[in-house]
Amino acid sequence: MTDSSTEFTAPIRIEVFVHAHTSAAVVEPLTDLVARARRLEDAIGAAVHIETWTAVRPALEELSDSGPSITGTVEAFQSWADQEGYDLEPAFDWRETPSVIGHRAAEVRVPTACVAVYADGDLQCVAPCTDGDRSYTVMDCLARLEEGVIEPEPFDTRERNDGSRGASDSDESTENAERYAHSEELE
């Protein structure tokens, strides 16, 4: 981890989203993920905000007096991905779901954990995402922030396996929990 003297040229805000409906097996790894993000407040002077979210049907969300918050967030993330050449799938998923009365409704499915990084108010990074060849995980994003870098850059899997990146057991268990929880939700 970088020391607390790491300074970014613009104010950094980190938003961490955790799925509100996950299995009990995922609670501890998500707690560890949130703690790691919170350490960035002191390490790099970032403002960290934690929020829970869940899959949503945009048509129902629009009925709310507060308006479409999750849908709007996911749309902003998708706009960033489109502009920067990243893909949010399969972590984020738009689906048509049937109802008991025969109508179909769009549903936005969100990952178990997500990190969005803003510099000077502008969205700079969303994880998880892919660049077509490699995946960029939430843990990759936090590790890059600890190194003082905002931009997405997936770590090479070979680097993790030979230990040169020093991925901890906690990092690995959190990533495994992310994968498990997301696949469980999609079933």
Order of helices and strands: EHEHHEEEEEEHHH
Alpha carbon gap, first and last residue: 37 Å
Overall, the morphology is globular
Tell me the structural class. Answer: alpha+beta
Output mean pLDDT.
79
Q: How much beta, percentage-wise? A: 15-25%
Low-confidence parts, pLDDT < 50 over ≥5 residues? 1-6, 155-174, 176-187
Helix content class: 25-40%
Q: Characterize the largest beta sheet: strand count, sense, and whether it forms a barrel.
A: 4 strands, mixed
Major beta sheet, strand line-up = 2-1-5-6
InterPro entries: HTH_63
Region (Disordered): 150-187
Pfam families: HTH_63
Biased composition (Basic and acidic residues): 176-187
Structure description:
- This protein has 187 residues and is α+β, with helices and mostly antiparallel strands.
- It has a domain at 12-56 and 78-92 and 109-157 and 164-182.
- Helices cover 39% and strands 24% of the residues.
- It contains 6 helices and 8 strands, in the order βαβααββββββααα.
- Helix 1 packs parallel to helix 4 (138-146).
